[in-house]
Write a structure and sequence with these properties.
CATH architecture: Up-down Bundle
Number of helices: 2
Number of strands: 0
Largest sheet: none
Low-confidence stretches: none
Shape: rod-shaped
CATH topology: Four Helix Bundle (Hemerythrin (Met), subunit A)
């Protein structure tokens, strides 16, 4: 009789453990779905930030090309200054050179601004990557 009671008690413990495991498993798909949704949202945000960052970098490269063009113009104006024989030509070339120099400085400022924007976007990307990694670690 004692053995049967002991067996019954063991079966009840096993049954309780199984019930507990089943309850935990029922929660798991919901939690997994929530994590999947959070990861998908973070991946979408990351993709969006990557795309924006690529566009910013592309704009910066374009501006760097523009600066090179203005530097070439400035160089050509400086060469022309060496061969000028009258004041009228000197004033005209100096005016063109000054305009080119101002444009170069403006573009340089734009590039500096873009560099700051790139740094901010990179920091944002790092944060999102960190969040995504956390979610992936939770998933594992």
């Amino acid at each position: 009789m004692q053995t049967q009671l002991s067996l019954l008690e063991t079966i009840q413990k096993i049954d309780t453990a199984i019930e507990s495991i089943e309850k935990q498993q029922a929660k798991y798909p919901k939690e997994r779905e929530r994590l999947d949704e959070a990861m998908a949202a973070l991946k979408a945000e990351l993709d969006s930030l990557d795309e924006a960052n690529a566009e910013i970098i592309s704009n910066k490269k374009q501006l760097e090309g523009d600066i090179a063009n203005w530097e070439d113009k400035i160089g050509r104006h400086e060469e022309r200054l060496k061969s000028i024989s009258n004041d009228k030509q000197l004033k005209a070339v100096n005016k063109e050179k000054n305009t080119a120099t101002k444009k170069k400085v403006e573009i340089g400022r734009e590039i500096a601004s873009i560099d700051r924007l790139i740094e901010a976007k990179e920091a944002e990307l790092d944060i999102v990557r960190g969040k995504l990694q956390e979610k992936m670690d939770e998933h594992a």
